[in-house]
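Query structure, 108 tokens:
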């Protein structure tokens, strides 16, 4: 895993002006990282579901990375590089699409 460029989790949702702010608490401060708004969404449950999904994004990314690491440890030539990033040296790794997805999400 590499150091994330996004605001580290956990992220949480908080209702604000009929929208949901996705926030990160840092001490006494709250940072708004995203807003799930009700523009074009008629039912509140859909907006809340969107907010929950956005708030879960850092955790989902961490879980996907862990799954890929575990799978590569079991099935590939896996090792840490000097910068402590995981590295699968197996050509034709079955998890390359997941690793590409993770890299794109992380802006790498
Ligand atoms: Zn692999």
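Result returned for the query:
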């Amino acid at each position: 895993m590499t150091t994330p460029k996004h605001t580290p989790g956990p992220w949480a949702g908080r209702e604000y002006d009929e929208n949901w702010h996705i926030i990160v608490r840092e001490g006494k401060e709250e940072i708004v990282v995203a807003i799930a708004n009700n523009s074009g969404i008629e039912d509140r449950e859909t907006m809340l579901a969107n907010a929950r999904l956005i708030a879960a994004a850092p955790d989902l990314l961490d879980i996907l990375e862990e799954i890929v690491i575990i799978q590569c440890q079991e099935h590939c030539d896996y090792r840490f590089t000097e910068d402590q990033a995981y590295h699968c040296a197996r050509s034709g790794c079955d998890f390359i699409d997941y690793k590409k997805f993770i890299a794109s999400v992380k802006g790498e």
